[in-house]
Amino acid sequence: MTKLTKLTNDIFSFLSALAVNNNRDWFLDNKKDYEQAKKEVNSFFQAVYDKISAKDHLGPIKIYRIYNDLRFAKDKPPYKTHFGLYFPRLQPHYRGGYYLHLSPEGSFVGGGFFNPEAKDLLRIRQEIAMEPEVFSQIMTSTPIVKYFKGQLFGDEVKTAPKGFSKDDPMIAYLRKKQFLLKRDFAPEAVLEDSFFEEVVASFLAIRPFYDFMTRALTTDLNGESLFD
C-alpha cells in the first residue's frame, strides 16, 4: 500500500472545527471527517517512520490517540486538537526518540531528553565536559544549525550544577536540565510538497546528537560499555 508523503488541508480543517466544538456529540456527528483525517495522517506518519528506520535503529511506532485521558483531569476537553507521532530509538543500546506534532496552532518536529533521571543527567553533563570539542562540533554542524538554529532549549539551573565549575567553557550546556531540539513549521509549510522531506531531514540531523548522548548513557567514565 502506497503511503502518503503530502498532507492536505483536510486535517487542519477538522482540527480547527474540533477546537471550537470539543464535545462528544459534535465528534460523533463528524466521525467520518475524523476517520479520513486520521487515515491521511497515519499514512504520512508511517511513511516518515519507514524512511527513518532505514537510517537508524528504531523501536515501535506510536501514533497518539486523539482522546484525552480524563481519569485524573476532569476539566480537560475530551479530545486533543492535534495529531502526534513518536518513535523511540531501540533501547537500551540506542537512546532518544523522534516526535512530530501537527496542529493548526503550530506544527513542529523535535526530540531530545525531556526529563532525564538524575544519574543520566549527571552522565550527560560529564560527557559534555569531557568531550567539549565533539559536542560543540555537533551543535554547530550544518544540519543542526540549518534545522534547529544550533540551539538546545529546556529548563536549566541558574548557576553551575554541583561538581562543575561556573567557568567551564561548556557551562551553557552543563546548566541544562533538559536537552531538547525543536523545529517549528507554519501551517502553510505543512501543506507544501517538500514537508515530508523536511521532516525526514530534520530527524536525520538529530542522529549525531543522539549518538553522542547514547555514548554517554551506555558507557562509564572510562568509556566501558555498561552492557558487557
Q: Give the helix proportion (percent range).
A: 40-55%
What is the CATH C-level name?
A: Alpha Beta
The proportion of strand residues reads: 5-15%
Task: Give the helices and strands as they follow along the chain.
Answer: HHHEEEEHHHHEHH
Overall domain count: 1
Q: Would you tell me the structural class of the helices and strands?
A: alpha+beta
Average predicted local confidence, pLDDT: 96
- How many strand elements? 5
Strand order of the largest sheet: 1-2-3-4-5
Shape: elongated
CATH topology: BirA Bifunctional Protein, domain 2
User: Which stretches of 5+ consecutive residues score pLDDT under 50?
Assistant: none
| Biggest β-sheet description | 5 strands, antiparallel
Continuous helix count = 9
Give the C-alpha Rg. 20 Å
CATH architecture: 2-Layer Sandwich
End-to-end CA span:
41 Å
Q: Can I get a quick summary?
A:
The protein is α+β, with helices and mostly antiparallel strands and 228 residues long. It has nine helices and five strands; from the N terminus they run αααββββααααβαα.
Give an account of the 3D structure:
This protein has 228 residues and is α+β, with helices and mostly antiparallel strands. Helices cover 44% and strands 12% of the residues. Strand 2 (83-88) and strand 3 form a beta hairpin. The protein is elongated, with a radius of gyration of 20 Å. It starts with 9 loop residues before the first helix and ends in a 10-residue tail after the last helix.
